[in-house]
Design a protein that fits this description.
This protein is mostly helical. It has one domain. Helices cover about 70% and strands about 0% of the residues. It has helices spanning about 5, 15-30, 35-55, 75-105, 105-110, 115-145, 155-180, 185-205, 215-220, 225-235, 255-275. InterPro entries: ABC-2_transporter, ABC2_TM, ABC2_TM_bact-type, ABC_2_transport.
Length: about 280
Amino acid sequence: MSALNTRSPMKAPSIVSSGLAAIGFELRAYFRVPDVVFFTFLFPILMLGIFGAAFQSMGDVGTLPDGSGGISLAAYYLPGLVAAGILLSGVQNLAIDITRERYEGSLRRLGATPMSPVSYFIGKIGVVVVTALLQSALLLVFAAVVFRVELPTDLSTWLRFAWLFALGIATMTLLGIALSALPRSTRSASAVVIPIVLVLQFVSGVYLQFTMLPEWLQNVASVFPLKWLAQGMRSVFLPAHLEAAEAGGTWNLGLVALMLLAWLVVGLGASLLTFRWQRRS
């Protein structure tokens, strides 16, 4: 028997270890592209800086009749921008990135390597989680240091933030994978994805108070997940008395969780049905 036949087969790297290596690769690639870093990582921080500085002279919002309870506009915009950051990291970043890799042939070449497709998605999901965590942490530190925004101090509120963040990341990641099937080319990816993401931010209570919108537009926005994620984040970072300013006069966290879970299922189903390793002819 030849030496070739007696040699033990080479052990393929495990899916998990390959996925962790893919996370490191994806992170290095992410931070090497300035426009990606700006539009998905620094954009919420930039917007908070603009809104906080531009409207600082307008005084506090939500002030009670006795003069207490008011917050700065920077504090008011903070929860919506945290939610928007999750949207940008999950939906916008993944949809554009996967489209580019598909039409440049990277996904097709992946099939010729020992790397499992599961490891590929571990890398993609991992970079979304890491960048969203870093972005949120930097946004909160920026708000606290520059605009003196008071952050929650009790554990229960941070636990609420944790499940909203985790559910939001899972939902937006799956929706980003599903949305990557929509653009017909690398060039059209940004033109297709960015307007969708931008419109959702304006109608979901990120840049405008949600109850200021016409009722029909509120009803349309209430179909989409960003409205619910922003509402949940307001329950974390805004004073309790501002709950009365919400549509329906309540944070309605049960419905927030239900709507995000529903969109998670939609994203999962759409991803399984539409994802392709090769571009459409």
